[in-house]
Amino acid sequence: MIKSRYRPRKEIVLLYFLIVAMPFFSFPPFCVSTNATTVFRIDWAVGALLVLVFLGEVLLGKQKVKINRVGKAVLALNVIAILTLFDLFNTGTFHSAFSSLYNFATLEFQLIFATLLFFAISNLDVSKGELKRILQVWVGTAFLISLYGIYQTFARNFGLPGGYIGGLTHGYGPSGFAGFIRPSAFFREASWFGNYLIAPIILTTLAVYYKKSHMLFQRNSRNILALSVLITGFFLSFSLAAYAILDGIVTLSLLNRYLRGRTVKTALIFLVAIIGTSFLLQYSGIDFIHIVAERVKGVYYDIFQPSKAISSPAAKNSFNIRFARIIMGLRVWLDHPLLGVGLNNYSFYGIEYGGVQFWTTDSFWVQSLAEGGILFLGALVFVHVLALTQLKRYIRKAHGNDQFLYTTGTAFYYIIWAQVLSGFLTYSWISMFWWVNLSLACLVMYTAKGFTVSKARQE
Fold this sequence. Notes:
By secondary structure, this protein is mainly alpha-helical. Among the domains are: about 1-65, no CATH class; about 70-125 and about 330-459, no CATH class. Helix content is about 70%, strand content about 5%. It is built from 18 helices and 4 strands. It has helices at about 10-20, 40-60, 70-85, 95-120, 130-160, 190-195, 200-210, 220-235, 240-255, 255-260, 265-285, 290-305, 305-310, 320-335, 350-355, 365-400, 405-420, 430-459; strands at about 30-35, 35-40, 175, 180. The strands form 2 sheets. A two-stranded antiparallel ribbon has the order 1-2. A two-stranded antiparallel sheet has the order 3-4. A hairpin with a 2-residue loop joins strand 3 and strand 4.
């Protein structure tokens, strides 16, 4: 008997394309902007197709919409977002009121789109095999991007071809310090590159921890190879925010008695990748030890000696700027405690409260507090709390019953924690990465729930 070849459904194919497209959201060939306004992004286009297919199947009665507790919290977040309209027109003039409404509508439509995408992904009925392929596409994409980022490090610092492609010579692209130009892969900032690699690193680390789960690749040597490349790209990004987030995840994992004894293997992979990269760069002519020393000095100046940081080439005073922005965001919130100043309207208050046009607080927790008040922040926190508690619940059910679902659930538990920690260092809660991670976490919950229900019926 000839086995029929597996053909993924169109929704799964679109999800594959979305995962591949997301890292290219700021890459000029796939991102079109005019007058500082983005009019097209490849990830938006693919996400819109996925939403349209989902809505079509719902209208035709082929798809029932599943809404778990996290989904209900997401809907509550949408309701509270609309309520922030009440404090929207405090800027005084008609022009300012119109600008406020335009800014609000821009973010509100993004939230509606993100919510539809959340339900489109989380409502996919996938098998464990399909879920595994989704994770393989994710890690495989990150592997290739990290591999290019590693090459880009040498290309940018030694003038090799391919160091700057797709217009990334403009804007933020070639950032660096102490004569070292950091890689940004296909992103506009090196820090975005580092942050992007966190979730794939968590997935691959858990696959190495629990090799019998076969969460990613059958051979654990392939998992180790993928993890080594991801870690090397992550290390070369020199993103302090990404470093801090991953350090937080490592600390949380040490509190897990099931993971505590497995951290030695991952620590060795980290050390080999980092030490190997450092020696390779040092041998190739880049004084990497001096570069690391300058970076450490810069951070020290930022925190403890800000007067030196202003004039020192080793620092850009980023810590003090972040701190000033957070303080200003809290001042804005204190004057608008319940519903904030309205979604996407924080930038109008920069001069009034800080004497400078700060359009972001560099923290989406503070940003959501200033723009949506205590109600919107509470709803955003509640979404994360529910996601974490629900994942924990299904992890316990899968433990000892299904190694694959246990490992996958544990990975997404720490990916959601990474989003919680990133909220203190990044400003956007509306990013595609944020919502896709949350959607996939719910997809894992539904898959685990289906497994436990079917097993209970068998028993």
